[in-house]
UniProtKB/TrEMBL annotation:
Gene Ontology molecular-function annotations: 2-oxopent-4-enoate hydratase activity
Taxonomic source organism: Thalassobaculum fulvum
Taxonomy, superkingdom: Bacteria
Record keywords, A-Z: Lyase
Domain Fumarylacetoacetase-like C-terminal: 85-259
An example Gene Ontology CC term for this record: cytoplasm
SUPFAM superfamilies named in the record: FAH (SSF56529)
Protein name according to UniProt: Hydratase
Length: 264
C-alpha cells in the first residue's frame, strides 16, 4: 500500500474519533491489506489524532491475547495498539456515555515499565520482560464500536484503528507483585455490582507476561521499543461487555486491587 493510500485510510478512520459518523464498510482494496499495512496506517492515524489534540501516546494495548477474545472476534493472533494520554483515567472516574459511539469494557491487568525493553537476541520471554516491570495494576480497557459493522472489517483495518481502543482506567499501582501467581490470578468484572465475567492470568497467552514479551518483540521490530514509564494493557480475561446505559463498572484482580469507572 503506497503512502498516499495509507494517508487516505488514516483520515477515514480518524473521522469517528473526531466526532464524525461511524466508519463505513471498508473499501474493496482494503480486503487484501496486510498486517504490515495495518500498522503503517496506525502510525499515520496517530499523527492525525495527535495534531487534532489527543495528546501523545502514553501506553499500549494488546488485543486478542485470550481465547475468549480470539473466538469473539475471529482473530487468532495478538494485535497491538496505542493509548493516548488524553484517554487515560484514574480509578473512580466519571465518563460521559456521549463521549463514545458505543462503549464497551474489558477486564485487564496493566503493567507499568520501570526500564526500557529494547530488542533482545533470540527475542524476549516472560522472564526477560518481568525484570522491566515496575508495577502491576487492575485496569479497564474502554473500547468503542465506532463502525457501521466491525465484523465486515478485515483484521488489518482493526489494527490500524488501535483495535477498538478508546481509553483505559487504571487502578492503584502495586509494586510488590512478584509474590503473586500471575497464572492463577483471577479477574472479575462487575456491572453495577453484578458479575459480568471472570477469567485468570493463564487465559492471557498462558501467562500475562507472554503477551508483554510479544509486544516487546513487535515494538522492537518496528523500531519503537517499549520505554520506561509506559504502561501496557495485557488483554481482557472476559469477553467485551457493551454499556448501553449509565452504569458503574469494576475490574478486580486478586492481589492487585480494583479499577472502577462510572458512565454517566
Amino acid at each position: 500500500m503506497n503512502a498516499e493510500r495509507i494517508g487516505e485510510v488514516a483520515q477515514l478512520l480518524a473521522r469517528p474519533r473526531l466526532s464524525g459518523p461511524p466508519t463505513p464498510a471498508a473499501p474493496a482494496d482494503l480486503a487484501a491489506a496486510t498486517v504490515a499495512d495495518g500498522y503503517a496506517i496506525q502510525r499515520a492515524l496517530h499523527a492525525v489524532l495527535e495534531a487534532a489534540g489527543h495528546g501523545r501516546c502514553s501506553g499500549h494495548k494488546i488485543g486478542c491475547t485470550t481465547p475468549v477474545m480470539q473466538a469473539y472476534l475471529g482473530i487468532d493472533h495478538p494485535c497491538a495498539g496505542e493509548v493516548f494520554a488524553a484517554t487515560v483515567f484514574e480509578s473512580g472516574a466519571e465518563v460521559p456515555l456521549q463521549r463514545f459511539h458505543r462503549v464497551g469494557v474489558e477486564c485487564e491487568i496493566a503493567a507499568r515499565l520501570g526500564s526500557d525493553l529494547p530488542a533482545r537476541d533470540g527475542g524476549h520471554d516472560r522472564d526477560s520482560v518481568a525484570a522491566a516491570v515496575e508495577s502491576l495494576m487492575a485496569g479497564i480497557e474502554l473500547v468503542d464500536d465506532r463502525y457501521v459493522d466491525y465484523t465486515a472489517l478485515p483484521a488489518p483495518v482493526l489494527i490500524a484503528d488501535d483495535f477498538f481502543n478508546a481509553g483505559v482506567v487504571l487502578g492503584v499501582p502495586v509494586t510488590d507483585w512478584r509474590g503473586l501467581d500471575l497464572v492463577a490470578i483471577e479477574g472479575v468484572m462487575t456491572i453495577d455490582g453484578d458479575e459480568a465475567g471472570r477469567g485468570t492470568g493463564a487465559d492471557i497467552l498462558g501467562h500475562p507476561f507472554n503477551a508483554l514479551a510479544w509486544l516487546a518483540d513487535h515494538r522492537a521490530a518496528v523500531g519503537t521499543p517499549l520505554r520506561a514509564g509506559e504502561f501496557v494493557m495485557l488483554g481482557s480475561v472476559v469477553k467485551t461487555v457493551w454499556i448501553e446505559h449509565a452504569a458503574t463498572v469494576t475490574a478486580r484482580f486478586e492481589g492487585l486491587g480494583e479499577a472502577s469507572v462510572s458512565f454517566v
